[in-house]
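Curious: why this fold?
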Amino acid sequence: MTEDTPPDDSTADASTTDRDRRAVILVSGGMDSATAVYEAIDRGYDPYLLHTSYGQETEDRERECAEALAAEIAAPNFLHVETGHLAAIGASSLTDDEIEVDDADPDSDEIPSSYVPFRNANLLAMAVSYAEANDCEAVFIGAHSEDFSGYPDCRPAFFDAFQTVIDAGTKPDTEIALVAPFVEWSKTDIAERGLELGVPYDLTWSCYRDDAPACGTCDACAFRLEAFQNCGVEDPIDYAERPDYAD
């Protein structure tokens, strides 16, 4: 089973924990994965960051943010992987110039055009390889409840199934936990936790369309702005528009 709740206070503080555990964290450059990094550190893990460029629209800005985060926390290891197969496969507005990135539509039940077919399975497979090669005990991913409402590879059932794949497909003495700490949380919950942990959100990027400024109207921008607005805190990155999405 995946982990989705933090440990008790006696083990959560990294400053009082002997840091002999390692975790790979998938870092996209966005706020969810940045918060997952700080959550992993708070749980006592040395963070091994994995960032992938797969042909997404804002891949340069995302990599820049991931690298800035790695420098900010002095990560003991940062791996950037270039892959081309997801862009070659296409069928997503993030990787195919012929498909437009949709404006946010919070009432839609449709899978958004930004869904990259089975992306998380691809990314998690690389993360598990990285984890096993470096004797890491866990792989963290920042997926949350508003993701799995639209993206099938963000559902709790998917992560539970992938844990079975990890257990079956690694060496007998390998034990790697797939940790999705925010899988039942909203974006607002994540923002609140990140503000508590001191996550440098100015070093993150969420927009699906633009490198700078963020558009403010795609799904990713809408969820992010709504979260900060619900927290009563101004999002520190620049936007072309800042619509009011607050509850």
User: Anything to note?
Assistant: Residues 1-18 have pLDDT under 50 and may be disordered. The CA atoms of residues 32 and 204 lie 9 Å apart.
